[in-house]
Amino acid sequence: MKSNYLKINNIKHFFLLFILLGLGACTSDDEGSDPIVEQFNDPIVLDCNFFKEARVLTDDPYAPVDYIVTCRMHITAPIKIEPGVVIEFEEDAGLETDDFHTADGSLSAVGTAEKPIIFRGTQNNKGWWRGIMFDSNSTLNELTHTQVLDAGGKPFNSNGDKGAVHVYANSRLKMTNSLISNSESYGLNATYTSSTLTLENNRFTNNNAPAVVNPGYLNAINNTNLYSGNTSDFVFIDPYGEEIKTPTTWYKIDVPYSVISNAIKNIRVRDILTIQPGVVIEFGAETQLLIYEDGGGIKAIGTAAEPIIFTGVSKVPKAWRGINISSEHAVNEIAYAEIQYSGLNAPQGNVWLWYESLLNIHNVKFTNISGCGINYRVLTGQGSNPNLTIGENVTVDNGCVTNVW
H or E segment at 13? Predict the structure, then answer.
């Protein structure tokens, strides 16, 4: 296959090499003959309007690099890239799959394990080129057995969005068995709403950070992918975008998660959120996990060996708000977990329940918090919340366990 180093990847090359080796083994009668030198083809430099009509890019086995992109190119037609193709990008160049003006814009890059498709810079520098942006909802959009290297430089738009692979609003991408590496920013950026994202068996490494997504795409951040080996080893969650509106699993992966603090402070949950044992989530300043009453539910059940860790980016009390539950959903349970450095605006912090919200909480340790661990409202005449069950081993290292206010 072709990669960062020239390799023989074609049966024609094999037979040619065999012939050359055979000639080298000839008798002394041939010693005075001129050596046969194999010739390689130069890459094809693509015109900036090349992808405005349907194209198929093919692998030239005699070209170490098949194509050169010199600019930011818009894809407004179906583009197919075949296995083994190597495309290099000049500084600040990039691809943008765009169906704004036409419904036909799509990019299908499906390689194989033996012949991956490679997108890389003309120089092996982080951020040398922009990357690939998907602003298209085509079902043809796919990166499989691809390598996206040296990208994540200049942003794609006036919003400042950077990423080696970027998924815009109302778009679609299936990415499997691919490598995203050497990005100056994120390996994957998917913070906008209403897109369809599928990620399986990918590796994000040697980037500034592996990925940033909004909460609606947490199902895609599954544990078939690898996210470690980056400058900042967190998958970042940006609450500014999508709410959790479908059943969602927050998977244990090989790095922690970090919730970004911006204009929106809440991860908003309107369906069932299941958090797997061993998940570690760091929350930015003033952020919180908010379980709404209109269908929201939380099922955060760790194990003694793998507790779920809810903590702050800053390791001081009041670093984040906590978990706010306004739901009577029967699944609501927090168990075998640690809640750390929360309690901003106590008593509306740490674990906070609205009137008659339901929660079964047990085997939970609160450390370095401000105020009581569990705070809840009651109706007039009630002394306690009949839907709140506090089981064994709920401890607070520096304060009270419960508070009615």
Answer: helix 11-24
Gyration radius (Cα) of the chain, Å:
27
Q: Which residues of 301-313 are buried (b: 16+ CB within 10 A; e: fewer)?
A: bbeeeebbbbbbb
Pairing of strands 78-81, 55-57: parallel
- 10 Å CB burial of residue 77 (0-12, 13-18, 19+) is middle
- Can you give the pLDDT of all 405 residues of the chain as single tens digits? 454 434 334 433 333 344 344 434 444 445 555 665 577 999 999 999 999 999 999 999 999 999 999 999 999 999 999 999 999 999 999 999 987 666 789 999 999 999 999 999 999 999 999 999 999 999 999 999 999 999 999 999 889 999 999 999 999 999 999 999 999 999 999 999 999 999 999 999 999 999 999 999 999 999 999 999 999 999 999 999 899 999 999 999 999 999 999 999 999 999 999 999 999 999 999 999 999 999 999 999 999 999 999 999 999 999 999 999 999 999 999 999 999 999 999 899 999 999 999 999 999 999 999 999 999 999 998 989 999 999 999 999 988 999 998
Strands 280-283 and 86-89: unpaired
